[in-house]
Design a protein that fits this description.
The chain has one domain (2-318): 2-Layer Sandwich (Transcription Regulator spoIIAA). Helix content is 40%, strand content 18%. It has eleven helices and eleven strands. The strands form three sheets. Strands 2-3-4-5-6-7-9 form a seven-stranded parallel β-sheet, with helices on both faces. It has a two-stranded parallel ribbon with strand order 1-11. Strands 8-10 form a two-stranded antiparallel ribbon. Helix 3 (76-98) runs parallel beside helix 4 (117-129) and helix 8 (215-227) packs parallel to helix 10 (260-273). Mean pLDDT is 94; it is low at 50-59.
Amino acid sequence: MEQIYTYGNYLSKKFGCKVYKVGINISGFTCPNIDGTAAYGGCTFCENDSFSASTNQIQELKGFHLNLNSTENPFLKKQLQQLEIQFNAISKRQKSEYGAQKFIVYFQSFTNTYAPFETLKALYEKALSFDDVVGLSIGTRSDSITEETLDYLAKLSEEREIWIEFGIQSVYDETLKKINRGHDSANVKKWITKTKAKGLNVCGHLIFGLPDETKEMMLETAKQAYEWGIDSVKYHPLYVVKKTALANDFVSGSFTPISEEKYLDVLVKSIQMKPKSVSVQRVTAGINDSSLLAPEWCRDKNSQIKSINRALKEVGLKY
């Protein structure tokens, strides 16, 4: 049985200890397809309120959003405090429960390069100043990052572990239009290529089960993402939550979520075609609360992992 190369394997081999990602949510960040720069409303599967937990922690930031053209940020001090509070709480728990020894600060929610450079620089450097932090992982969109930011991160990567996480989702422009993505596939390829050329690590996010996509289309997305040179990958099934445009399509019957059987088939084939050097960070996703509309199999992560391991075992792999 062959063990799939995971991100955890990569980190433990490089640093010789348990390294955990600390997911951070900074108030004031948004996306260009929410604020109208690229589109309005966000991706059809995105429930914008689900990213607003930190806004409740810092009420002064409610309604305040940054973008690449923002000329000032009066709330930077509060954002830095928020970063520190979240890091301290989460890393303490990870040390206690999982024996974590080192950390990657993961700027997770929304688009974490979509702000003035000086704001980004202050947040990234604050994160790197915390004890036992070995690097950063920055979730973003390909239409929301600049050469200046990439150059700065490339400089940081000379001494720290720096990752950029791009939402690829699909390489088909008709699909990206259907989900109101706000950019095309060529834009993603362009910025992943630029990022790799500067020596930075790239994680690509792929979604299986997007509207009207066939199994062949999903596999082609994985194939092209690997060809673009990504270093790591996250695989997600598309699930439907309340208060989204996708929920309206589901209720009206115009969208049918991917079945577990089909997801497993696509996932296993995608992993089989993956270059061995590409680590796997995630093999599924879901949510177990009242906001989930469908599919029901995305509710129980433990059940999902068991099903995935059974499917992988049939082809001689284990996760």
